[in-house]
Design a protein that fits this description.
By secondary structure, the protein is of the alpha+beta class. It is built from 11 helices and 13 strands.
Length: about 325
């Protein structure tokens, strides 16, 4: 807490109050706030059981945002593409390292109907927050399942839990599908909640996946494969080869190739390609960068090669987004 500045944006700097944010029909709301501490913009999509907020913040100092509205039991997914932030349980001041979220990470936690404290270092970053009502989330969980059963029981007892995982390109694809839903009303709810359920399943998968991995992958090799995956998330702007990765992590090239695909469903290089393209789309869509600039950021020396790869991934030229 030393050196931190307390900023209650919701009371002192609110531009647009958003009461009863969960909505029967999908709706959007925009909130902007500025002060001598910095600036904050929150673009929120609200559905019946969830809110999806794209945050754009710039803080000059270490800052704590205290959120006092929308006080219901919920499950929060706090995602950071870059920078560092955190959430304290039950509106308290426990900012332990286990509750810090760094770039490339997602932190899922139960939040009771109490004020929340979000801590951010002095930085410019764009976190993504998805919050789902606890009742709806628990309704999706099977009480008889060895993993989801105990998780559901924790929610019903209103016990805190926090689960940190690595962000995947699919997280952003599903979030984008929700934000860009072309339908309204009941059909819009149906489409967005389909993407929401996929998102939740994807978020929970890493915590049950070890039981699904075939026995021919040893614990040591599995740890190495996950290490490779995390390394790609940190350095996807670079160009990696299968040979270089196998040397760096001390694993046979063929074993790396087969085990990575078995665990994550796609080859190593395709996984890297997906990371690059998802980041490129975010830069084009959210920051309005030029195609040539984005190509260089994600490791392409030739903008035409980048454009070809982008079209292969998304079915459109990057110039259509930029």
């Amino acid at each position: 807490m030393n050196g931190a500045t307390v900023a209650d944006f919701y009371e002192r700097f609110v531009v647009d109050e958003i009461p009863n944010i969960y909505a029967e029909s999908p709706r959007r709301a925009l909130m902007k706030a500025t002060s001598d501490i910095g600036s904050l913009k929150v673009d929120t999509l609200a559905g019946r059981f969830f809110t999806m907020s794209k945050i754009d913040l710039h803080f000059k100092y270490n800052t704590i945002i205290e959120a006092k509205d929308n006080l219901i039991d919920k499950i929060g997914f706090y995602m950071l593409d870059s920078g560092r932030g955190g959430v304290a349980a039950f509106g308290g001041s426990d900012f332990s390292p286990s509750r810090h979220v760094s770039g490339g990470e997602s932190y899922m936690a139960f939040s009771p109907s109490l004020p929340e404290l979000h801590r951010f270092d002095a930085q410019t970053t764009k976190p993504l927050y998805l919050e789902v009502t606890a009742d709806y989330f628990s309704s999706l969980l099977d009480s008889n399942d060895p993993f989801t059963g105990p998780l559901k029981e924790k929610i019903l007892k209103r016990e805190f839990f926090g689960m940190k995982s690595t962000l995947m390109p699919a997280h952003y694809r599903l979030a984008t599908a929700m934000c860009e839903c072309p339908l309204e009303g009941s059909l819009g709810n149906l489409m967005m909640e389909g993407s929401l359920q996929q998102f939740i399943a994807l978020q929970l998968t890493p915590f049950v996946q070890p039981t699904q991995i075939k026995e021919n992958i040893t614990t040591r090799d599995r740890d190495i494969i996950y290490g490779v995956r995390d390394h790609l998330h940190r350095t996807f702007r670079d160009n990696h080869s299968l040979l270089d990765l196998s040397k760096q992590f001390g694993i046979n090239q063929n074993k790396l190739k087969k085990s990575f695909k078995e665990i994550f469903g796609v080859p190593v290089i395709e996984y890297l390609y997906n990371l690059k393209m998802e980041h490129a789309r975010n830069l084009l869509y959210d920051q309005g960068m030029y195609v040539g600039e984005v190509a260089a950021v994600v490791g392409y020396k030739n903008a035409n090669h980048f454009a070809t790869a982008f079209k292969r991934k998304f079915g459109m030229k990057p110039s259509k987004i930029a």
